[in-house]
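go over this:
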Amino acid sequence: YLNLALGELSVEKQLSKRCAERGWEMTALAQDGSMLEDVLVRQLPLIPDRATHIVLSASGNDLLSLLNEMVVAQFTVRSMYAAIVSGLMQVAERYRDLIQTLKGLGCHLACCTVYRPNFNHFFFKSLAVLALG
């Protein structure tokens, strides 16, 4: 959710620009819509052996999926509980597993996530801020 009118660049474009300025190589493996499982199974095996640094931006789609489950269930207490308690626990566990796997590669690792949810609805924005906090 970038504000292109203000010249905001995606993480990939920011890094690509900085790397090019310094003469460094960059491999972008991110795929829009990927879930944590996709990153672990489909993207990690593609990390080049010569990689020295990894920048990870993941879990946003997993959190959006939890939100979608609540919307479909019309925000019943059961759906909210399932998403907030067990859903967030599962996302956190998958994220920890991914981090541990990446740490095992011996590269420098930087992790980032969505820091400014772009929802118009106050409830969605609040929920996203809570989930990302």
In short: The first strand starts at residue 53 and ends at 57. The chain has a mean pLDDT of 84. Strands lie at 53-57, 108-112.
